[in-house]
Amino acid sequence: MPANCAKGREWGKRVREVGAALRERRGTCRVAAMKRVFLRGCGVLAGGLALVAGVIAAESQVVVANDVGGAWVVPEAKWDGRVVLLLHGFADDRDGAGDLTKRLAGGLAERGIASLRINFRGEGDKLRTQIESTLATRVADTEAARAWLVQQLGVKAERIGVVGWSLGATTAIVVGAKQPTWWRTIAVWSSPSGDQFAQLASSATAQKALREGVATEVVPGWKTITTKREFYESFRGVDLDGELAKYPGAFFSVRGSGDYLPQHEAEFMKIAKGKPAEAVVIGGADHIFNIFQPELGHARRVVEVTVAWLERTL
Questions:
Q1: SS3 of 236, please?
Q2: CA 95/CA 92 separation, integer angstroms
Q3: Mean pLDDT over residues 110-119, rounded?
Q4: What is the count of structural domains for the chain?
Q5: Range of 169's domain?
Q6: pLDDT, tens digit, for every residue of 282-301?
Q7: What string of DSSP letters covers 81-103?
Q8: What angle, 0 to 180 degrees and rounded to 10, lies between the N-to-C axes of helices 298-313 and 100-110?
Q9: What percentage of the chain has pLDDT greater than the value 90?
Q10: In principle, which of 8, 30, 56, 102 could form an S-S bond with 76, CB 3.0–4.6 Å?
């Protein structure tokens, strides 16, 4: 038990309770493994178990396809086959900025909804600086993830949803247009809109990569990122508004009013053909919902409204 954990005794008691419950259900072997490690601050127990607001969920590290890994989270009780695929943003990873996507997975598990978070090939690593992905590889990885999901025991193929953050939103919508029956519901955070090539190619870094084949940018407060011509070219001809119009299911858009990407929620609501179609703009929140300023409550809010939406529309 970490000495600096203010609720150490409470967590210890909870671990013992979980151990007793699991001993009855699964035998002592997994209990012993579970008790060996208690990971600081996130409520994760060894043996692939996580405590989320008092709910036990099993998290497994899985291989979805070649070079595509994922975290598969299944509620231990009252799971009815609903599942959400979680797609990360540019140059990020499956847990999201400040582990916000991982937090979303926990919130879903609390409501009895399973989830799969994947790392995109050539991109899905917070420490990675060389970006090797394209929109095509992102789409292929998403397709592979859904194929993996429908093979899992208990998953209901007709009750799969997807959440995409930033470039993950682009990916989710493009796949939804290509395979209109795949997603029962789509939720997007800080989504791009309109002409994707024009939006992405407008920066000096993109222009250099398009001219010279490769370009490197130092992003203050984050990391150094190198992109290639192929990355930008893969978005040529992609109109995200047009793609959304091809998707027939439920659609939800969440954005902060301080997002550097333009607010497009009113237009999205007109374009979306599926029902319900709803949007939430969080006042004062930035592109990553001020995840590193928890006192503002924006990150908590985006998780709350998204979980509520998915619980209602899956």
A1: coil
A2: 8
A3: 97
A4: 2
A5: 57-194+239-313
A6: 999 999 999 999 999 999 99
A7: S-EEEEE--TT--TT-GGGHHHH
A8: 40
A9: 79
A10: 56
Same domain, 95 and 119: yes
21 with 152, same domain? no
CA 105 to chain centre: 8
Rg of the chain over Cα atoms, rounded to whole angstroms, equals 20
Residues 6 or more apart whose CB falls under 8 angstroms from that of 304 comprise: 107
Mind listing the pLDDT tens digit for each residue in 181-222?
A: 999 999 999 999 999 999 999 999 999 999 999 999 999 988
Say how far apart CA 226 and CA 130 lie, in whole Å: 5
Write out the two tokens for 165: 């953050």
Note whether residue 52 is domain-resident.
no
- Candidates 252, 294, 245; CA nearest to 272 is 245
**Quick check: bond before 276 cis, omega within 30?**
yes
Q: Which amino acid is at 250?
A: A
Q: Which two tokens stand for residue 144?
A: 């592979």
* 24 band by pLDDT with thresholds 50, 70 and 90: very low
**Whether 42 and 169 share a structural domain:** no
Number of separate helices (H) and strands (E) present in the chain: 11, 13
Q: What is the pLDDT of residue 14?
A: 40
Residue 180 lies in a domain: yes
Instruction: Decide: 116 and 98 in contact? Cβ < 8 Å.
Output: no
